[in-house]
Amino acid sequence: MTQAVLPDSTREFEFTPADFERVRKLIYQRAGIALAPSKQDMVYSRLARRLRARQIDSFKAYLDDLDDPLSAEWEAFVNALTTNLTSFFREAHHFDRLYELLLKQTPGSEVLLWSSASSTGEEPYSMAITVMEALDKVRLRVRILATDLDTNVLETARQGVYALDRIEKLSEERKRRFFLRGSGSAQGYVRVRDELRAMVSFQQLNLLDPQWPLKGPFTVIFCRNVMIYFDKPTQYRVLQKMVPLLTPDGLLFTGHSESFFHATDLIQPCGRTIYRRAR
Ligand SMILES: C[S@@+](CC[C@H](N)C(=O)[O-])C[C@H]1O[C@@H](n2cnc3c(N)ncnc32)[C@H](O)[C@@H]1O
């Protein structure tokens, strides 16, 4: 049940329960994101920026514009409401498993990997680092596809430039080998080295789209910390499209707080938050 939004006299724009319901409906239809009733303040502050930027003086007028499915505002609306939290080597055990799996591939073979909610790029670049380390031991041709719905984060990811503190937990060896330190105006930033950037292709993809322009097959798919925003039927529909894109022995890596008991006909657990195709 939706909590009542109390009138807040300190707010710059009026934001009624009906406005919040409209936002919830629109983002659910477009991106599958099921916003909890507790997210009213977050929604207000993120979208108020859009109203200011467009010099619109009411949520009603702003949302009326989105009644047009072709409105130019859709991209910014979706970008404003996605949550993009990520980090290098988040849930590190997945990268250990990826490394082991790479070493088991037939030498000389082509291996495709997919980061399906890549956010600002830390996840696919961590995959690329793992690949480079595996390539010290086995010769493979590896390509990484990184996709996300949010065009802003994809742009950041393509640049591959991060504040220095984003890599502070990485070993000195990894920092030296895979990042370039900025100087002058880029002081305090690092850039991922070209060999990593060359391995990763970024592309916009809405996991909700009925058709995905992807072939695979992927040896590993990372689908982490995005399904948590979807309801169970939406998660199931995404898995129905995703699982057939795995190689027969391929692995699906999911987020630490996601569970898929409702999809055991599609995937079976084989490690902590790791799944393979159901046989
Ligand atoms: C919390 S981040 C997770 C990033 C990374 N996978 C990780 O685990 O660190 C969630 C990402 O999912 C993306 N996302 C949300 N809805 C999506 C959708 N329908 N299709 C594709 N990506 C989506 C968001 O834009 C955001 O970048």
Bound molecules: S-adenosylmethionine
CATH topology value of the largest domain: Rossmann fold
What is the succession of H and E elements? HHHHHEHEHEHEEHEEHEEE
The whole-number mean of residue pLDDT values reads 95
Domains, number: 2
CATH H-level superfamily of the largest domain = Vaccinia Virus protein VP39
So what's the CATH class of the largest domain?
Alpha Beta
What is the multimeric organization of the chains shown?
Answer: single chain
DSSP E strands, number: 10
Number of helices: 10
Trace the largest sheet across and list its strands.
Answer: 6-2-1-7-8-10-9
Helix content: 25-40%
CATH architecture of the largest domain: 3-Layer(aba) Sandwich
Tell the overall outline.
globular
Q: Would you tell me the structural class of the helices and strands? A: alpha/beta
Catalytic activity: L-glutamyl-[protein] + S-adenosyl-L-methionine = [protein]-L-glutamate 5-O-methyl ester + S-adenosyl-L-homocysteine
Binding site for S-adenosyl-L-methionine: 84, 86, 90, 123, 148, 206-207, 224-225
Protein name: Chemotaxis protein methyltransferase
Function: Methylation of the membrane-bound methyl-accepting chemotaxis proteins (MCP) to form gamma-glutamyl methyl ester residues in MCP.
Give the SSE map.
Layout: H1 17-31, H2 40-54, H3 59-65, H4 74-81, H5 93-103, E1 110-115, H6 122-135, E2 141-148, H7 151-159, E3 161-163, H8 172-178, E4 179-181, E5 189-192, H9 194-199, E6 200-204, E7 218-223, H10 232-242, E8 246-254, E9 267-269, E10 274-277
Parallel strand pairs: 1-2, 1-7, 2-6, 7-8
Antiparallel strand pairs: 3-5, 4-5, 8-10, 9-10
Helix pairs in contact: 2-4, 5-6
